[in-house]
Amino acid sequence: MVLGEHNRAAEEGTERIIDVVEVIVHEHYNRSITDNDMALFRLAEDVQYTRSIKPICLPRDDVTDNMMCITAGWGHTLCEQCA
Known about the structure:
0% of the residues lie in helices and 18% in strands. With 83 residues, the chain is mainly β. The chain has a domain of 42 residues: Trypsin-like serine proteases (Thrombin, subunit H), CATH 2.40.10. The strands form 2 sheets. Strands 1-2 form a two-stranded antiparallel sheet. A two-stranded antiparallel sheet has the order 3-4. It is extended and about 40 Å long. The two termini are 25 Å apart. The relative contact order is 0.19. The C terminus is likely disordered.
């Protein structure tokens, strides 16, 4: 896994490669409609935080159905307008 990667077209010097030893996919993941499209990655070593490598912020309160949320992450982001 590459951490600290912000521009995949260029090497910026902020990248750090760490081996993934286990991937835990959400038990109700549905690839055809991308429901529950999330997974946990167990890394081979601890992550040292830097200006470019930081943990995500999680909500302090419980998240309930129909609650407005903001998500972030990199996944499949190609759309028709981008192709």
